[in-house]
Amino acid sequence: MLKIICYGVRSYEKQYFHNLNKYNFQLTLVEELLTSSNAELAQDHDAVLLRGNCAANRENLTKFKGYGIQYVFTRTVGINHIDLDACSEFGMKVARVPSYSPNAIAELSLTLAMMLFRHTAYMTTKSSFKNFIVDEHTFSKEIHNCKVGIIGVGRIGLTEAKLFKGLGASVIGYDVYQSDAAKEVIPFTTLDKLLAESDVISVHVPYLPGQNDNMINASFLAKMKKGSILINTSRGELQDNQAILDALLSNHLEGFATDVFPKEDELFFRSFDPWQMLPDPTVQKLLELYPRVLVTPHAGSNTVTALSNMIETSYDNFHDILTTQSSDNLVPLPVLSIK
């Protein structure tokens, strides 16, 4: 029986790990993310299952190699938390979950956008302090009279486009790859045209290191329609926090919401005292602009359906590799040069 240690399993997730364990794997569920101080818990296991922000670096992978672990799998789409060079060197196999419920991220994006668009965070915060005055900051347009731009119209972006269309909004898209399914739902346009025309822009772009770092930069923001709203629920590395802060302070950008930050492991899944300054002063300043800035802690996939998809696919990955020595979701590892 395969013995798997699963890191980053929140308390309310444990029942799903057990209930979906149709292959009867022997599970060890650890609530903490993988760090250098708890890697030794993997001793006497055959495999590791990670979540985002687990530190599958060379140091921890070296320990795993010493424990005889062959499989370092992740229940996420992204794999940037895993040192693939080290895995290749140590002969470990890596697998991921290529997709899960697109509605999870799309619904969060839509919710954040509408909270900013209708100023609901501003109003409910005021009401919580017993201030029920209707002022100019609660005044808004209606989404059916506005245009929404989706950058990255894959499964998630297309799902969000359909949700916004259901509200009556005019929706346009930009993507390097334009699927036939997406073309049936929305028209595609150039990036510059989308930025100039959209009242709300939602980003669903995969992070490609060295290719689209800080894609959302000063130039990108300057091309956006004045008074528009920006949502990023994809990857933090795509956004230049300082440029976004500057656009907000100049009132070129009305609102910003994000589920991600660059170097977010320094922030997310931690609790800071209210008087503590955050490690990143720019993030600190962004948070101080609430309710014009809304931040969720990389929780887009934190739904029953998405979690179930992740667990089931991860278990299938382990089963496939054991029974067929392969899996459709194996991650290609770098080929190391022989010196």
From TrEMBL:
PROSITE patterns in the record, alphabetically? D_2_HYDROXYACID_DH_1 (PS00065)
- The D-isomer specific 2-hydroxyacid dehydrogenase catalytic domain extends over 8-331
What is this organism's lineage?
Answer: Bacteria, Bacillati, Bacillota, Bacilli, Bacillales
Q: Which residues cross the membrane?
A: none
Give the Pfam families listed for this entry.
2-Hacid_dh (PF00389), 2-Hacid_dh_C (PF02826)
Sorted alphabetically, the keyword list is: NAD, Oxidoreductase
Tell me the superkingdom of the source.
Answer: Bacteria
Q: Which family does it belong to?
A: Belongs to the D-isomer specific 2-hydroxyacid dehydrogenase family.
Annotated D-isomer specific 2-hydroxyacid dehydrogenase NAD-binding domain ranges read 111-300
InterPro entries, per database record: D-isomer_2_OHA_DH_cat_dom, D-isomer_DH_CS1, D-isomer_DH_NAD-bd, D-LDH-like, NAD(P)-bd_dom_sf
Protein name as it appears in the record: 2-hydroxyacid dehydrogenase
